[in-house]
Amino acid sequence: MPLSSSPLVTFSHVAKTYDGAIYVIRDLNFEISDGEFLSLLGPSGSGKTTTLMMLAGFEAPSGGTIRLGDRTLNELPPHKRDIGMVFQNYALFPHMTVAENIAFPLSVRGLSKPEQRERVSRALDMIELGRLGDRKPGQLSGGQQQRVALARALVFEPRLVLMDEPLGALDKALRETMQYEIKRLHHRLGVTVVYVTHDQGEALTMSDRVAVFHGGAIQQIAPPSELYEDPANAFVADFIGENNGIEGEVERLDTGYATLRMPGGRTFRGKAGGDLKAGETAMLALRPERVSVDNGSSEARNQLSGTVEEIIYCGDHRRIYIATESARNFIIKVPNTQHTVLPASGESVRVNWRYDDCKIVSAAQA
Amino acid sequence: MSMGTANGMAAGTVEIAPAANVSAYRASRRRESVRSLALALPLLLFLLATFIYPIGSLLLRSVQSGEVAAALPQVAAALQDWRGPDLPAPAAFEAMAQDIASAQADGTLVSAARRLNNYEPGFRSLILKTARRLQDLSAGSAAQAFADIDKRWSEVETWRLIQRAAAPLTPDYLLSAVDLTVGPNGFTALPADQQIYQSAFARTFLISGSVTLLCLVLGYPVAYLLATLPTRQSNRLMIFVIVPFWTSLLVRTTAWYVLLQPNGVVNSLLMASGLTDAPLSLMFNRIGVLIGMTHVLLPFMILANYAVMRGISPSYQRAAVSLGAHPAVAFLRVYVPQTLPGIGTGAFLVFVLALGYYITPALLGGGGDEMISQLIAFQMERQLNWGLAGALSVYLVLLTLAAYFAFNHFVGVDKLRLG
To answer: Which end of chain B is flanked by fewer CB atoms within 10 Å, N or C?
Structure first.
């Protein structure tokens, strides 16, 4: 979707430490555009939830500034920020009915009773739970509770909605339905969403952009396809999707390409990532589905030989594990098309891939 | 299971278990319940012998009135059909003379006299005087002889009281426990200067209610602190709640007895710090009772609320704040309503325990602070009026039950959380 050019949220030089020594967030700089769906993705302890909590106002930054529109948020208490929030366990108030839960943000803002009723009934229609307004949250299913939590965070029409692993407690099928539901609401309402998750599939399918967190810093912030096709460093390449990572020394850099030398003397050529210097350690990042086992065409290709250790049938594709001199667990994904000739287990094979299908990335993290 | 059953299940039909299986299932359930009963039986027997039977018999005493009928059986029979307003037939006087003689011989006369004395002060001496004097007389009409001994024997009221006392069941104790009596025209209130029990019940309620309120005001914030601190710190603080809870009630009350004395620790500190010039009277009055009982009962309030608060996720308040509620509003509208089961449980426990309090008000209270259990003890130990003690206990039990049903109605016993 088209993003407006003015940033809604700006993080500049934001840092967070609890003890003055260990920084859980180091020098965070990024912007969120109005109407954007941004996911914060990372393993636990990477700083993504801390970032969200600083934006919500439940944690104060130790340094730097956070701006929402033209206001600096640092000193603004959370209840004055007008930011909707959906919690992991929904946090629906158990002693209130569904309608009272949704009316809560309206009633604390002093809206008249008729207006509250009007807005609550619109919100209930929006989440298609129109007739369940009199139930208590405990009488609803997980998916229904999740929708009520969404409606409650949206009913006061905030410009920004934060979601902290909102689908973590749901089973897989329901999670996919709710992903679609959230996307639909995002499109319809044009609200800006910041979505914390540790599920990369969720992040890739829902987001306009994904910020990959690790070690208290953003490793890469980019649209999903760019993260996958063009990872900024070894961590992102390994964290997003499957990756054959082969470490070596940068031998040569030329016009957008780099050559990586393995300890055994073999060299690979691929697109060059940023921050590469000749003589330094780097990693070859290669997606398993980009590797061919048949003999390559005339194009310039990287070559590797090894022994097939195991073939696993996965329905729409097969995974072939190959032991090579350079990489112990080299994986190939072969799509399950009709005329694939597969090697047998224990057989020696030569595999190859195009220069443009792999990337030489810095082993250092941001 | 037979082959046919297995096929039936494969076909997806609803299975009806064979009768043999049902009876085997029932037998196993029966064995289970016999086993449970056997495990609980020793305790049940113990409770029956030491708890349920004595309490039940004390409560029954509130309506029993066997002393007079046992000591004066012939009188009871002679007065059975007497309705007044004339004096009873001469036969009743003769029966009285014989009964008094035989009752004095077997020693039951004193308890009958004491029972009659409950109705009318002076009755005991009347009976005993009569018994002494009757030995000297032998001839003449019994009625005349009685009239000579004391003119009260010629009054209808005297005989009416004896008739009432001779009935096997009596409402008298239950009435006098609420300052009522049976007059010639049905129930009447006792004269104002003789009323003590209604005001004692009201006082018991007032003290229990005040203690409950004090415990809530003091205990709720502490419970909140304990529930929201990190586990290590809250465990450390919890010791300060638990240790007094485990300490003997008597020890704690005696400690307050020492602390609150006119030249005790509290007063010395107050005077040394210049807050007061003269010692405050902190004991033998209502203040002492409230301080002592609140301190003793506070752990119940704290623990009941802590148990509920510990289960409330902090994310509720965060959610309320993120939705625009001021933290104080979030606390009042989102947190406090969720702690109502804890408040209800704590208040119920403290109130019901306070209703029956005895040692603390007895040691720390003054003349105007007797609670109902002190009056019950007084009737049992000093007055030996077990009937009245039983009647007061009946009302105490009823009030406790009323508190229970009120609690059940407003909070729900299924929400009772004790840890």
So the answer is: C
| pLDDT mean by block of 10 residues, chain B; 419 residues | 43 63 87 90 92 90 84 85 81 85 86 82 85 71 81 85 84 86 75 86 94 97 94 91 88 90 88 87 90 94 93 91 94 93 91 91 88 90 87 92 86 61
Among B323, B326, B333, beta carbon nearest to A152: B323
Q: Which residue has the tokens 């600083």?
A: A54
Provide the residue count of chain B.
419
Which residues from B are below 8 Å from A80, CB to CB?
Answer: 324
| Same-domain status, B401 and B322 | yes
Domain match, B231 and B313 both: yes
B177 domain residue, yes or no: no
- CB spacing of B316 vs A93 below 8 angstroms: yes
User: Which of B315, B326, B327 shows the shortest C-beta gap to A91?
Assistant: B315
Q: Note down the domain range covering B51.
A: 3-61
- Indicate yes or no: CB of B326 within 8 angstroms of CB of A95: no
Q: Is B151 on the interface with A (CB under 8 A)?
A: no
ipTM of the predicted assembly exceeds 0.90 = no
- What are the DSSP calls for A144-209, one per residue? HHHHHHHHHHHTT--SEEEEESTTTTS-HHHHHHHHHHHHHHHHHH--EEEEEES-HHHHHHH-SE
* Spatial contact of A283 and A302, defined as CB atoms under 8 Å apart: no
- Do B347 and B405 lie in one domain? The reply is yes
Total-model pTM: 0.77
Whether residues B80 and B50 fall in one domain = no
Q: For chain B, how many structural domains are there in total?
A: 3
A79, A94, A162: residue with CB nearest B326: A79
